[in-house]
């Protein structure tokens, strides 16, 4: 019996070692030079004076993730990104032997915190993990272009810190304007998730609606009320035109919100209202990536 127990212990230890080697190989072969620990990434970022690039991925099943890795992340030019960022991979593979139990738990926790809705999702964050840029998916960009774009995004952190410093020294609407210099430039979802305190302060201080953030929050609230009501397509379209004229929201942000709501309404079977919203969204920013997609969507799904 002792011999059997000893043999089982040896087998268990061997399995543990093999798992460790497997994970080390995954690091070296698939994400060489990346850390898999959020806490380690923060420590390294603070020590080296860098920001953090975190990628949420599904390395063994997600086609866009695989394409991003093949076309960009594994290319030599991507190594220059390390001059600005500590690289953190947060992987959710189907083959769980590629990640440790601790990494699986970390993914669950962080994907909930950052409200990840799909992969690949890339967040750029400061050394405390507070993001200042977010992008989802991969559009097939060449490695050189993707790298240049992501390195340029580091300026958003400098913009944030400078804006917050000005806000600290200001009062009243001037404080709101300083905060708005950063908040108005980032993804609305990111702003709502991580900078709600700043949004609330802008809303409180900007009583005249002079900041982009105040105009956006006003538009968002009233649009959601409109879209959730019982207005027919024509009436909704007319009311939306009035709302846009009154609040003057950022066109591309408003377009994305209207597009998202239109998709939900379409799925519920209300095609006339969904179509009216798509037409309104397309008019806001016809040259944006979403604006260019809408005519094809109208042609494919809203034929008379």
Can you describe this structure in just a few lines?
The protein has 14 helices and 4 strands.
Features of the shown structure:
disordered N terminus; Glutaredoxin; globular; single chain; alpha+beta; 4-stranded mixed β-sheet
Give helix % range. Answer: 55-70%
Rounded mean pLDDT is 90
Strand order of the largest sheet: 2-1-3-4
Any idea what the CATH superfamily of the largest domain is called? Glutaredoxin
The helix count comes to 14
Question: Approximately how much beta-strand content do the residues carry?
Answer: 5-15%
The main β sheet shows up as: 4 strands, mixed
The CATH level-2 architecture of the largest domain is identified as: 3-Layer(aba) Sandwich
Distance between the termini: 79 Å
Q: Per the principal axes of the C-alpha atoms, what is the gross shape?
A: globular
Low-confidence segments, given as residue ranges, are 1-28
The CATH first-level class of the largest domain comes to Alpha Beta
- Indicate the radius of gyration in whole angstroms: 23 Å
